[in-house]
């Protein structure tokens, strides 16, 4: 075994071998893979081997498309047969609600070039005669689906990597990881020690254990997963004989099952409600090419539905039942990328759909390691999307929920209950008593809307029972004043003698004067957006940065990677040590004036000002800014003062009819102003000028901020896209994001977010279109739930075009 390597990949499943191959493909050949047993000996060997390109997240779908297209390449290059069967596939809907969901999936795929088609039950039956058309209301046909041989595919990656110079050591168990002072790693194994510049945790079932070697508790859990294989079925043989084809892959969401042909029989697998974690605390190192005990009774409810939907199974004998463990993250997506706080320690685990996503994961991680960027927007798979709230017990609860719901509909207004409430603020009970309906974001309970007594969210693809109430909340803000909690924002303190220079290089904006705020885009080295913030200068060397709550760990990882090494900057994520309330509306100033002796008039406290002030008896930081686009103030306080300030604001606001409002009303209000949001309009896919943030990019400032040259190039060349707002001729539903935008009948762009702007009475869609047609006034339409609806370009904000309300 060699003593040094640039990279050590731990784990010889399909993901580890894909990472190894992609590193060598892109030029890093001094790479080693360590496997404690044989290749595929974790979850890979007993996988069903299915693959597809369709995914609810279009960015993940792109990586799945890449994975499927890669298979012929690695088969040809390695000379290893991977047993590829491109059968095409059906996604089936047994209810109108599920069919609406399939329509949304079809629409999302249009601008990614996925060639799917909606079918009637009769058409689906003609393609897949085992199904009973009377059990379904429709289907989605995807020509790019199929299955392969897990063993052959993994070995094809491995052989290709070895052909490029990689080395693979089997029966080599990693026992300890120790980081040296220079940042390199001592990888201590039962066969000796390797010094590596980088370590990749692709350990699958043992990912937790490899994480714990460096003090990391990864949010990953293995679940028992069962599928059965039937005896030969005459219906299968007849179809093969008469058509010359193999039966296609099927997913029956309402039956919680999937199936495909296996030789002359069929394979049927389930994601059962009565799911069971496997080895929930530690994974035994001696577990290998083994299966778990059969437990067909546990999946009987799903099989009963499956046998009803596919009657031929009632006459088929069962040849084999496979029960093996697969790893999942709390939301079912992989955990990929650099781990914050650890130099050159990379995650490539929880890849449950390894044969749909393994190639894309390898591509993204290899890009990231070699070029410093994954080359795609992979936030949905980024290991940093979880914070330290994702404990072992949290992960157990959320993974079980995700597994049991894998084939269930997740409505756009549906909030899942497992592991909640976990994080709450001091006013949680008060908001709940007022009718608050909550969602959880980054572990924190946040009020979405305030329901009348006895009402709860009614989940739907279409406008639901919250519609009128959210409208009333939004109009209360526009007419007088509203109060909402803003504790869910991420808050960062940046202090020290080097703080200003650090932020001047990190952010594309100009650094504001003391007592002032500014909007602050943050760019990667390629000039694309990696964050958008409000930057406030509280004093010399004392800054407060406000950003998206879901991206706290993601942004802290970036901030920390850019810190100077001279200890001149003190950086801290404030989390729930600083909480927030916000008031907005034309009477917001009058309300604030009742609580302080300070002059908060426009002359003394203009728009984008910030200062420390006492409100009643409580010290606070007050900024004159509001995401509603109205006159408003954000108020930040210590947790021990939040209940007091909440009561004070509600009592003082009573004369103005102050009303609580939640995140859904805030979304409606920001759409009035065409304001964008992180992870939707602003993400690493787009440049600042494409996103409409160019006026906040200070190309003329002296500091050579990250991405400056690329931003200047984008400005000069214009970029490829433009963010635009559209008014949609909607009926009983509004866009939520990822719907295709058409111009003169051709797909040209995509919706990033939207909804109903209640105060303006309009259904709004925000999205990206090519710059060449971005200002065309005619010819626009948007697809929503299977219908092509007329849309009109909204060149100006619906509310307060000149911005006088928020500034006066």
Automatic annotation (TrEMBL):
Domain GCVT N-terminal: 428-701
Keywords for this protein: Oxidoreductase
Domain FAD dependent oxidoreductase central, first and last residues per copy: 371-424
The FAD dependent oxidoreductase domain, residue ranges: 6-368
Keyword Oxidoreductase applies: yes
UniProt domain Aminomethyltransferase C-terminal: residue ranges: 722-800
Entries under Pfam families matching the protein: DAO, FAO_M, GCV_T, GCV_T_C
Cross-referenced SUPFAM superfamilies: Aminomethyltransferase beta-barrel domain, FAD-linked reductases, C-terminal domain, FAD/NAD(P)-binding domain, Folate-binding domain
UniProt xrefs under PANTHER family: AMINOMETHYLTRANSFERASE, AMINOMETHYLTRANSFERASE, MITOCHONDRIAL
Family: Belongs to the GcvT family.
Name of the molecule in the record: FAD-dependent oxidoreductase
Organism expressing this protein natively: Rhizobium calliandrae
């Amino acid at each position: 075994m060699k003593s040094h390597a640039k990279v050590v990949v731990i784990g010889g499943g399909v993901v580890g071998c894909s990472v190894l191959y992609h590193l060598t493909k892109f030029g890093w050949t001094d790479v080693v893979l360590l496997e404690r047993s044989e290749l595929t000996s974790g979850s890979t060997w007993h996988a069903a081997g299915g693959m597809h390109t369709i995914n609810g997240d279009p960015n993940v779908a792109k990586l799945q498309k890449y994975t499927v297209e890669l298979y012929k390449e690695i088969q040809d290059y390695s000379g290893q047969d991977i047993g590829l069967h491109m059968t095409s596939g059906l996604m089936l809907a047994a209810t109108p609600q599920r069919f609406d969901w399939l329509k949304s999936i079809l629409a999302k795929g249009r601008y990614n070039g996925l060639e799917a088609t909606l079918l009637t039950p009769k058409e689906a039956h003609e393609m897949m005669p085992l199904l009973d058309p009377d059990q379904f209301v429709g289907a989605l046909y995807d020509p790019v689906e199929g299955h392969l041989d897990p063993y052959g595919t993994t070995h094809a990656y491995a052989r290709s990597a070895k052909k490029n110079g990689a080395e693979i050591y089997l029966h080599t168990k990693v026992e300890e990881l120790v980081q040296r002072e220079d940042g390199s790693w001592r990888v201590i194994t039962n066969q000796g020690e390797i010094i590596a510049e980088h370590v990749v945790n692709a350990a699958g079932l043992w990912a937790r254990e490899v994480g714990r070697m460096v003090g990391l508790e990864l949010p990953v859990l293995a679940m028992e997963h069962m599928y059965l294989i039937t005896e030969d079925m005459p219906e299968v043989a007849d179809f093969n004989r008469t058509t010359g084809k193999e039966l296609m892959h099927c997913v029956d969401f309402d039956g919680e099952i999937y199936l495909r042909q296996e030789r002359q029989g069929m394979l049927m697998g389930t994601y059962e409600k009565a799911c069971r974690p496997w080895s929930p605390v530690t994974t035994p190192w001696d577990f290998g090419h083994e299966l778990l005990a059969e437990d067909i009774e546990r999946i009987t409810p799903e099989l009963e539905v499956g046998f009803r939907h596919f009657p031929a199974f009632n006459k088929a004998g069962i040849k084999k039942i496979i029960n093996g463990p697969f790893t999942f993250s709390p939301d079912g997506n992989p955990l990929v990328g650099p781990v914050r706080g650890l130099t050159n320690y990379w995650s490539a685990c929880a890849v449950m759909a390894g044969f749909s996503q393994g190639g894309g994961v390898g591509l993204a991680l290899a890009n990231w390691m070699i070029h410093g960027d994954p080359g795609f927007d992979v936030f949905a798979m980024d290991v940093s999307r979880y914070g330290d709230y994702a404990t072992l017990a949290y992960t157990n609860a959320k993974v079980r929920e995700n597994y049991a719901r894998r084939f269930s509909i997740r409505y756009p207004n549906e909030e899942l209950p497992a592991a909640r409430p976990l994080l709450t603020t001091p006013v949680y009970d008060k908001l709940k008593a007022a009718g608050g309906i909550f969602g959880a974001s980054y572990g924190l309970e946040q009020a979405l809307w305030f329901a009348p007594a006895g009402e709860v969210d009614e989940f739907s693809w279409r406008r639901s029972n919250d519609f009128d109430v959210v409208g009333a909340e939004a109009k209360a803000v526009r007419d007088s004043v509203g109060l909402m909690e803003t504790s869910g924002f991420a808050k960062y303190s940046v202090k020290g003698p080097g703080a200003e220079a650090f932020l001047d290089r990190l952010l594309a904006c100009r650094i504001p004067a003391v007592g002032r705020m500014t909007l602050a885009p943050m760019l990667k080295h390629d000039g694309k957006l990696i964050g958008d913030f409000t930057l406030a200068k509280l004093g010399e060397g004392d800054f407060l940065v406000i950003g998206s709550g879901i991206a706290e760990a993601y942004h802290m990882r970036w901030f920390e990677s850019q810190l100077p090494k001279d200890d001149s900057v003190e950086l801290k994520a404030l989390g729930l040590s600083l909480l927030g309330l916000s008031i907005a509306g034309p009477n917001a100033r009058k309300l604030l004036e009742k609580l302080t002796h300070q002059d908060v008039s426009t002359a003394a406290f203009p728009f984008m000002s910030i200062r420390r002030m006492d409100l009643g008896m409580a010290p606070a930081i007050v900024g004159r800014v509001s995401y509603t686009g109205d006159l408003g103030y954000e108020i930040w306080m210590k947790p021990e003062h939040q209940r007091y300030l909440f009561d004070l604001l509600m009592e003082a606001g009573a004369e103005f009819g102050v009303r609580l409002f939640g995140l859904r009303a805030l979304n409606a209000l920001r759409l009035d102003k065409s304001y964008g949001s992180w992870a939707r309009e602003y993400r690493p896919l787009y440049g600042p000028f494409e996103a409409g943030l160019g006026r906040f990019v200070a190309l003329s400032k002296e500091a050579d901020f990250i991405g400056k040259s690329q931003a200047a190039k984008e400005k000069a060349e214009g970029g490829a896209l433009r963010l635009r707002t559209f008014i949609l001729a909607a009926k009983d539903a509004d866009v939520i994001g990822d719907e295709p935008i058409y111009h003169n009948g051709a797909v040209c762009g995509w919706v990033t977010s939207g909804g109903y702007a209640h105060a303006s009475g309009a259904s709004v869609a925000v999205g990206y279109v090519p710059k060449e047609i971005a200002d065309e006034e005619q010819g626009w339409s948007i697809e929503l739930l299977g219908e092509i609806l007329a849309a009109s370009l909204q060149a100006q904000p619906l509310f307060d075009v000149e911005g006088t309300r928020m500034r006066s």
